[in-house]
Specification:
CATH architecture of one domain: Sandwich
Mean pLDDT: 79
Low-confidence stretches: 315-326, 398-405, 412-421
CATH topology of one domain: Immunoglobulin-like
Number of helices: 9
Structural class: alpha+beta
CATH class of one domain: Mainly Beta
Amino acid sequence: MTRVTSLRNPKSAKHRRLDSVIRLGAVALVVAALASCTTIKVTSQPDGARVVWSPDGAEPWRDWPPRAFGGESAPTTPFSDSGRYGDTVYVTVEKEGYRRPLPKIAQLYTFRRNKLEFVMDELPEALAERKKREGQVLYLGEWVDPAAKDLVVVDGRAMPRSEAERAEMLAKGLVPWEDRWVLPAERERLYGDKMTAEGKVLFKDRWVMPEVVELETAWDEKVSAVEESGEYLDLGAPKVLGRIDAPLAQLQIFNNSGQPSTVIFSGPTSRSIDLEPYQSWGIQPGETMYVSGGRYRVAMIRRAPRTNTTAPESSATRASRSVTPFSDRPAFTSQPLTAGFQYSFTIGTGEPLTPESLADYEPPNVELPVTTTEINVPDIDKVKADTAPKIPDANSGSAPGSGPGRRPPRQGGSGGSGSGGRPRGPS
């Protein structure tokens, strides 16, 4: 019988098993060694930033890594490394033309994994240099392509082409008129011809209709008559209320005189307004009076009250006119009014009242309508006679209780008048 012998060497197979065990152990040792280390991964936007660290998060910042950690020196993002340190440090990134972001904590302990991400903001100066290299311009706070927006650069400032052409014409001393550019004197002549064709005339540096000229001239003459007479009260200076967003002066008027009055402003823009007693103007919406800036002569003239047959006169107007003796003299003042301001004029109560002024004053007889109602008062004696109880007459032959509607008295019993009963009372 032939015995077959294996070609394998038992000793060599044993050695191979031992080698496998050794290799597996080495791998385990390597894995354990790697697992016992700390790892760090740093990324940034944009890439290429230098990784720096500090033990306390303050200056000075040092290039990565810490001496005991080991690893790559002065790395740039994206970056990853591992090592042993056993402490906590602060990490951030730096790149030219960008702000350094706030640092983040990296815990470099055993079995720690640190993943740090940073976003950096570009400095305005660096952004401007980069955009200029790309051919863009700054317009209305944004970097844009000038060709796409039809922009031109004049003296380092981007503007629309039409605006650049306007600036060029103004620099030459020209002014716009309709669809062309002309000299200022030529525009004045052309504007005057246009206003004349519309029937307007030049009055107080304004082009107005002839009716306006006639009206304002009449107002100016009235104010001049008051001023030249010298017989007027002092209207006083207006109160400045504040600034307004308008190229004119705005007016408010209060008539506290208790009499109907007309207030006239004579100046670059003449105005007139009628006010009833205690009426104001310029307070309610829609009540506005604007005049051009300049010096104005202001006159307040008393006028007769308006007659209105359809509406009754108010009690305040009737009482103020009939009881308080106001002066009939006009009031006058001359004051400058500045455009862009709001003014308030208050018409006072006239001359002060004195015993001398009241000595010869006789208040008018005021007749107030009175409505009466007739009340019919009845005669008290007649009412008492009608409501008194009726007592029957003894000679009439009728006994009590025998009248119609009365029950006859009972015969007998406790309530009758017969035998065995008690009388009810005198008959």
